[in-house]
Input
Amino acid sequence: MKPCPHDSEIKAMLLQGHWPDACNPELRAHIEACPQCHQQVLLTHTFQTARAQAIESATIPHPALLWWKAQLLRRNAAIRQVERPFTTAQIFAFVVSGAAAATLLIHQSQTDSNWLAWLSAPWQDLRVDTTSFFASTQANLTSTPGLILLGAAAGTLLLLGSVIAYLASDRQ
Amino acid sequence: MTWSYVLSAVTTGDTLPAAEPITGSAMTRDYFAAFYERSARPLWAYLARVSGDPALADDLMQESFVRFLGASAPLDGELDSRRYLFRIASNLLRDHWRRPKTTPIHELPEELFASTSASGQLESWSVLAPAMACLRPRDRELLWLAHAENYTHREIAQITGLGVPSIRLLLFRARRKIAKLLEEQDDSGQAIHRRPA
Output
């Protein structure tokens, strides 16, 4: 549909708020005769009036409230972003510790065929004589340095596992 | 462009020049307060009249401003910022309509509109509301942006994400439909619109 030649003139008149009282008689006569312009005036006038009345009736919250809310969201997003490398590092440490423990166990199993007995030796002593527990453990530890490593790896794994479990539960 | 320059433009009520792009997240508190003061009510009017639900408009308006403040898109001056804000609001409105268990506006009873227009000032809206309720949400959006906010087809395209030719066609149809509805009301003596004498 081809726009009316008076289209821009009518739009400007409506924008300036000249309709209906301050509209010049020639333009008013044209609006009466042209269905396209009549529609334009009808819609724009109705919508502009509805807009003005809606703006008057609007009750808006204080901007500080929204500013504070946005700041809070932004801060939370920043914290999440900072935490991300830590989580990655924790997962990496866990994987490395697991791999180290597995390597150690495999190595021990290859070098000593009776490694299961070697591992359970201190506990057998414990079962036999509980009173000499500390003495036998100390003796075993000093005589078998591999056990120290194994104990350290297991302790690290346990510690990291509990830290990760704590962090995961804390985030939830 | 310094912030003192920006603030001086705000206090004088001028729109910001398009010299240097800013982002919503880079706004100062004072600049935001001034921008909010000028944009919040028109945005609320848009959301309330297009959705037909003032309570929803309250929520979406706040959400729009919060998202606007978190946005990192560069904006050339206040007019661009306002368009961007309307775009966020339009997207939120669309998300709301897409959600399940939403009652479409044309299914809402007419009394609901009457109850929202408690004051006698809302006489115009009581005429427009039934006609708007007969339209699709997208048509209501387009009509409000074109006739209440006076946006051009290109600006409406930026806000709604539709193409300019589509907007031209959709607006043409929506205009014809709502004009017919308003004139029918006018004929039955309900409309307050004064026909050209």
Remarks:
- The first helix of chain A runs from residue 7 to 15.
